[in-house]
Design brief:
about 525 residues, alpha/beta, TIM Barrel, eight-stranded parallel barrel, three-stranded antiparallel beta sheet, globular, binds 3-methyl-2-oxobutanoic acid, binds zinc ion
């Protein structure tokens, strides 16, 4: 193995599994497929597509991603239970490259309180689960949940058991985000030095961000011998989140002078992935977020601007282009024709059917009448909005609102529901409230609004609004998006998009602690 291969770090993305576990971040099958395709295009080594046993919906997601993705390895999580492993194996059958990821807690606290198992029983469960997984696939990852609070002697035994049973990757997670870098390096070093055949497997980090140390800890894991990092786009995940992929990848790339490790990630796809995940989950990226925040490459102070104009390296340690941030390009205006629009869609990577194209072109022309300059971002927002509503049971046709600072607002809404045109006029305390009340008046459920968020697609008062609505109903939470040059129409479209998702059945039960069979 060459030196550079020894320093190759596999990127294991868990946005679709650990990321989706953040409260409110649930995603539809279509959204998960879109994200998986972007991750594949980024050259992510492993995509953790879900937890197949969790629900029929999760099973379907893993299966569909396994069918669709041809380059990255597709992985399903499974507890140390035969039923979990069989379900994961079944969902992964169509995958070109499949991995089963099985885990059990190894810390004294988790074993006693959560699992109510003796250490010997846990070792037995590791042996059974990993061996069973190896009967289905050659690529098996085993994780010691809460590894950073596990006694080292027991961790050695657990890892040795997993390797003997056939695990090919060993993950030592900082499940509760408790570790600090030096300690995490030392843990990997000790395990690798003390466990027989440790050199035959790949060790992995998996860090949560409760103390804001997830990225630092992941890099520290590499210093201790780990060669896989588990992470998520934008760092989404349980509680304070997981290690952010974009930060890890760009730290390794930018500081290659002192960090000898490298990944295969196509960094120019980072921004696209970040925007997609933020839109789908409704989790806005904070402006000052490293790498993907709106201000990550903005220079406000005059002295900085002057320096950057003379030589970008004065204040920029990486180029915006290296993470896929491009200058907003002025694309077209209302005089641009069908042909130019079709070319633009092709450049942006869209392939639309005839009907979708006609409708997008009609909306593009309507936008051109109201907005002088149309940018790439405008077209992306418009087409994504149109495509997302295409197959839906309910669609917004028109929204007319009247509001004043002195009284209530009224909304006149027309929609189609299963092909029938329906109409209502409803009041609210403001125009958004009136629009949402109108939608509720036309459907027979009354979901609880958990989040309403508006974002301007470009600069200026004529910018399109991109709205996110999070609704909760019958123990299910969904996010809907809508874009339009009229903010209230965008809000109504987002609300209806969320309602459409609620109408698609997808039960989800939270898997409890393992029941070993
Ligand atoms: O945080 C954790 O320990 C996990 C495991 C299931 C790998 O997510
Ligand atoms: Zn985790």
């Amino acid at each position: 193995m060459s030196q550079s291969d020894k320093n190759h770090v596999r990127i294991f993305d868990t946005t679709l599994r650990d990321g989706e576990q953040s409260p409110g971040a649930s995603m539809t099958l279509e959204e998960k497929l879109n994200i998986a395709e972007v991750l594949d295009a980024m050259q992510v080594d492993v995509i953790e597509a879900g937890f197949a046993i969790a629900s029929n919906g999760d099973f379907e997601c893993v299966k569909k991603i396994a069918e669709r993705i041809k380059n990255s390895t597709v992985c399903s999580l499974a507890r140390a239970a035969i039923g979990d492993i069989e379900r994961a194996a079944e969902a992964l059958k169509p995958a070109a490259n499949a991995r089963i990821h099985t885990f059990i807690a190894t810390s004294p606290l988790h074993m006693r309180v959560k699992l109510q198992m003796q250490p010997d029983e846990v070792l037995d469960a590791i042996h059974k689960s990993v061996s069973r997984a190896r009967n289905f696939v050659g690529d098996v990852e085993w994780s010691a949940e809460d590894a950073t609070r596990t006694e080292l002697d027991f961790l050695y035994k657990a890892v040795e058991t997993a390797i003997k049973a056939g695990a090919t990757t060993i993950n030592l997670p900082d499940t509760v985000g408790y570790g600090v870098p030096e300690e995490y390096t030392a843990m990997f070093r000790s395990v690798i030095e003390n466990v027989p055949d440790a050199d035959k497997v790949i060790f992995s980090t998996h860090c949560h961000n409760d103390l804001g140390l997830a990225v630092a800890n992941s890099l520290a894991g590499l210093a201790g011998g780990a060669r896989q990092i588990e992470c998520t786009i934008n760092g989404i995940g349980e509680r304070a989140g997981n290690a952010a992929m974009e930060e890890i990848v760009m730290a390794l790339k930018t500081r290659a002078d002192i960090l000898p490790w490298h990944t295969n990630i196509k960094t120019t796809e980072i921004m696209r992935a970040s925007k997609l995940v933020s839109t789908v989950t409704g989790f806005a990226v904070q402006n000052n977020k490293a790498i993907v925040g709106a201000n990550a490459f903005a220079h406000e102070a005059g002295i900085h601007q002057d320096g950057v104009l003379k030589d970008a390296e004065t204040y920029e340690i990486m180029t915006p282009a290296s993470v896929g941030v491009t200058k907003s390009t002025l694309v077209m205006g209302k005089h641009s024709g069908r042909h130019a629009f079709a070319d633009k869609l092709q450049d942006l990577g869209y392939e639309l059917g005839d009907n979708a194209f006609q409708e997008c072109f009609r909306r593009f022309k309507a936008l051109g009448d109201r907005k002088k300059n149309i940018y790439d971002e405008d077209i992306i927002a418009l087409v994504d909005d149109e495509v997302a509503t295409w197959a839906n049971r309910m669609q917004v046709i028109s929204v007319n609102t009247y509001s004043s600072s002195n009284g209530s607002a009224v909304c006149d809404l027309t929609m189609t529901v299963d092909g029938d045109k329906v109409k209502t006029v409803t009041y609210g305390s403001g125009p958004v409230d009136a629009a949402f009340n109108s939608v509720k008046d036309l459907i027979n459920i009354s979901p609880h609004l958990q989040l309403f968020q508006v974002h301007a697609v470009t600069h200026g008062t004529d910018a399109q609004a991109e709205c996110t609505v999070r609704l909760e109903h019958d123990n299910r939470t969904v996010n809907g998006q809508g874009a339009h040059e009229d903010t209230i129409t965008a809000a109504a479209r987002a609300y209806v998009s969320a309602v459409n998702k609620l109408l698609v059945k997808r039960e989800k039960k939270a898997p409890g602690p393992v029941a070993v069979q």
